[in-house]
Amino acid sequence: MNAIARCFDTYWSSSIGKKIVVAVTGLLLCLFLAGHLAGNLLIYAGREAFNEYAAFLHSMLHGAGIWIARIGLLVAVTLHVVGTIALTRQNRSARQPYECKATIQATKSSRMMIWSGLTILAFVIFHILHFTVRVDCQLASLGKEDPYGMVIVGFKSILVSAFYILAITLLCSHLHHGVASIFQTLGLRTKKNDGAIRQFSGAFSLVIWLGFISIPISVLLGFLKF
Predict the structure, then answer these.
(1) What CATH number is attached to the domain comprising 79?
(2) Residue 107 predicted with pLDDT over 50
(3) With a threshold of 0.70, does the pTM exceed it?
């Protein structure tokens, strides 16, 4: 165990090590978002379909699967944010007075990535407390067998929906820059495919944004009802 810790510490202390950790965790989070959105959109198929999907998630590995996924998500988000902050500090300390405009803009972009990342981390914790731990008494009274009802009741709160939409908007702003960076860090981005990667990054971010914010908006507008 100590050997593994020392190996990770050595890897993490290098700039390339942190970049790869940020890229790999970013890729895992993108895959999670795509899968999570696909499942969440089942809410438009009705209460039965959505509740069956939720029951399947909670029954994986006799109930342990969902908690493994949640813990893995928190670890990935934390490593991603911490890695981004560490790289930004490292880049800032290495800056020279004759730095070009493009580098200054990149630093500003990285700074925005940090704040959006911290907001997303706070949102993930809030989201788990709200819909999983169910600190809201109204959600707790519904019981675990009706996740559809929990989503409707939860998003009827304008404050909850507003925070959700804000977090998803920041997340997709983060994705728009981050997805292309993943390809670059992993050595998959070239001059030839740069345009296609940028288009994919923008399209992926837009689909994720529209898909997730459509749910609280549909609840607030009455298209999705209890």
Answers:
(1) 1.20.1300
(2) no
(3) yes
